[in-house]
Amino acid sequence: MLIASYCGSIASAAEVETSPPAPEQANCFVESSSDTVEVSSMSALASALTAGSPGRNILIAPGTYAGGGALDFAGNGAEGNPIVIRPRDGLGTVTINSPRFQFGDTSSWIVMEKLYFAASRIVLRGDHNRIARCRFRNINVNSPIVTEQARDCRIDHCDFSDWQYDGAQGGCIAVRPEHFPNGAAARLLIDHCYFHDMTPDAGQNGNEIIQLFANTNHSGLEAPTLTVDRCLFSNINIPGEGEIVSIKLGGVAVRGCTFGNCPSMYLPMRTSANCEIRSCWFEGPLRSDPLMVRGPNNLVIGNRFIGGLNLGVWAGNASWADILSGAAGIGSYAPATESRIIGNRLGSGHILVGTYWGSDTNPGVSLPADSNLLEENTRDSGGSAGSLISSIHGFSPAQTNTTVNSTTSAPYTPAVKLTSNNVGLEAPDPLCV
């Protein structure tokens, strides 16, 4: 049943939409030879960085480097004049097998680019640091990039593949629960990265490509903006509960991304508020409901769903206040409320308002999706994209106060499908031209 009247207050698109990256977050630079140091060991690299001043270029001689433990970096460049670490002879000439690289807590304006990593982890800390055009293989050490007390940092044009499952929870990029609260990790930009060809022979709940985690008590949910922008996820199949971008934070934006050929994978807004999914392309094989909207004040706008894929605006089993306080416990989910679902185009699928997992695995569903707004959503196969479920698994009502309009005044750009030419090691950088 379509509910024509609207009760309640839904935030405007401007209020819900997260802010675009600040220009300084791009950490652009012009290569200079005024202060160039060449190194041929990891210890020499650390020393050159620590002793460096803004504008230093640290060139790593060709070869494969291994280390026996953590390697800490400490250094400070300047805006427009960072310290740059890169291979002397260009992309593909330096491979690093050290198990752990770690930026110093106070490091700033450092760029690490064009390096190959194998079974290695980078702990990204400090302010305005950047990991660019790096390749990660043999991903078997949980997440190869972990953001820890990192602010205004950028991970861009990187290439991730070859996930070797080692029995632990993991992914490619993670914001850890213990590192997020109180603004310790903030304003992270992940853009133009290529995640592809990952088919480990085993998996478990907790294996996600990008993990954006809240604390156990969800105290980090009202966090500064994290943006995943124009990334391509292709040919990924992680057994078990495979998640592509797992959103368990507030203020997350996923924009202009393409998700394709990822069987059983999906993008869940597991515990989210004030988040945005904008102009993304979803194409199978994926789960039949690849995007799950939960929590208050989210914006889902301008996305494209090919074939029979559905968009779920979910009911829940816990209030948002209980989620924030931790009283609801892990595994509890707030319903989608006061969210805007605008300008999405589906193939033969539907927008399912009030949907939920089967009652046999998630008993106690009790809170309807409430006061959500659907505007200018369309389907290739004709008919309304707002096929609402008003009763599911014996739970009724599954949705209340839903408004459906055929037009919208909110501006949006339709999704465009990305290819491997748009992302990764050698793709153009629109932020640094």
Topology:
Layout: H1 13-16, E1 36-39, H2 42-50, E2 57-60, E3 63-65, E4 70-73, E5 83-87, E6 94-96, E7 100-103, E8 110-113, E9 116-118, E10 121-127, E11 130-132, E12 135-137, E13 145-151, E14 154-156, E15 159-160, E16 173-175, E17 189-191, E18 194-198, E19 208-212, E20 226-229, E21 232-236, E22 243-247, E23 252-255, E24 258-260, E25 267-268, E26 276-278, E27 281-283, E28 291-293, E29 299-301, E30 304-305, E31 311-314, H3 320-325, E32 340-342, E33 345-346, E34 351-355, E35 369-370, E36 373-375, E37 378-379, E38 399-400, E39 403-405
Parallel strand pairs: 1-2, 2-5, 3-6, 4-7, 5-8, 6-9, 7-10, 8-11, 9-12, 10-13, 11-14, 12-15, 13-16, 14-17, 15-18, 16-19, 17-20, 18-21, 19-22, 20-23, 21-24, 23-26, 24-27, 25-28, 26-29, 27-30, 28-31, 29-32, 30-33, 31-34, 32-36, 33-37, 35-38, 36-39
* CA distance, first residue to last residue: 50 Å
Helical fraction equals under 10%
Gyration radius (Cα, Å) is 22 Å
Shape assignment: elongated
Strand content is: 25-35%
Largest sheet: 14 strands, parallel
Q: Can you tell me about this structure?
A:
- The protein has 433 residues and is mainly β.
- It has a domain at 171-422.
- The protein has a 14-stranded parallel sheet, with helices on one face.
- Helix 2 (42-50) links the parallel strand 1 and strand 2.
- The termini are far apart.
- The model is unreliable at 1-16 (pLDDT under 50).
List keywords for this structure.
39 strands; twelve-stranded parallel sheet; mainly beta; 4% helix; 3 helices; single chain; 32% strand; 433 residues; disordered N terminus; 14-stranded parallel sheet
